[in-house]
Amino acid sequence: xxxxxxxxxxxxxxRIKDPDYMLSVFEEIIEGNSEKLxxxxxxxxxxxxxxxxxxRCLTTFGIFHSTPQLPKGYNARSEALYHKYHPFExxxxxxxxxxxxxxxxxxxxxxxxxxxxxxxxxxxxxxxxSSKTCFRDGSVEIFNALKKAEVPVLVFSAGVGDVVHHALxxxxxxxxxxxxxxxxxxxxxxxTLEGFQGDMIHVFNKNQRALAAHEEYFSLLAHRPNVILxxxxxxxxxxxxxxxxxxxxxxxxxxxxxPEQRLEKFMDMFDIVLIDDQTMDVPKKILHHxxxxxxxx
Length: 297
Known about the structure:
By secondary structure, the chain is α/β, with parallel strands linked by helices. It has two domains: 2-51 and 134-184 and 197-296, Rossmann fold (3-Layer(aba) Sandwich), CATH 3.40.50; 55-130, DNA polymerase, domain 1 (Orthogonal Bundle). It is built from eleven helices and eleven strands. A seven-stranded mixed β-sheet has the order 1-11-10-9-2-5-6, with helices on both faces. Helix 8 links the parallel strand 5 (153-160) and strand 6 (178-183). The mean pLDDT is 91.
């Protein structure tokens, strides 16, 4: 594992704040192998890319917003909300506590736009299947390897759960070891939308939702105290809060927006920070050592 750590540190886009600590965590997880491992990952801009060939990739909300059956004017109003609130999400100087009220209001305003929209489940699924989803290079390969090794995967998304579900399904990544916690759409008996099911998940309340999922999901995995966590936002670092008695956890953060200003915060919250990396190369290298190369054949 020392050679792996040295190799990672030599990569120009990789930052590791405490290499000695990271080495000890590597060794702990290797010793526990796949039988004690679970994976927790964000979806948008974590399993998927932020950009490809010079263009921004659509998020789950972006794919949903492009659904042709949505009411006239919906896209413009949704786009206005994005430009109003997204700058607060990635603002390099605001704390999570300062950002949270803006995220809560963004989700409330977005939900209001959905009420009464006549989009059927079948129409939405067809649109998602016909839309391009820019998964990171290596995401499909990693999911297949985790399935072979029987490692549980939790996809914990603040996006649109229906889009997450069908995008994974489309790419044959919705395997029986994969569970999704996200914002799923709510249809009434007439088939029109009434917002989302239950309390909204946003990028900065994943710690609370992780704890809420404790009895439902994490208690079933009490025998898997080792975790690899993947995210692209400060709030994603808290996705593992529901893990029972965690023993060793590697938090990997993908950083794109304002990297110079946000790097220090990211390095405080994630063990490994990857700057503008649109691949799964680093997680794949780590999983090679944990699962064994034969799971990637």
